[in-house]
Amino acid sequence: MVVCICNAIRETEVRDAVRRGATCPRSAYESLGRRPRCGQCLPFARSIVEEETAAA
Q1: Residue 1 to residues 29, 48: CA-CA distances in angstroms?
Q2: Distance in angstroms (rounded) separating the CA atoms of residues 56 and 4
Q3: pTM tops 0.70, yes or no
């Protein structure tokens, strides 16, 4: 599933970034060499970060 249309970031990429140490959507995006643009994706990205953090 696509998380961020502006940056073409997929859910699996955000999950992998969190597993590698990202602690928030911004750090996950930075680890992918991107940054949030319009911000519409941040709530969804945040929920993915929280899910992965809880599962760890």
Answers
A1: 16, 12
A2: 24
A3: yes
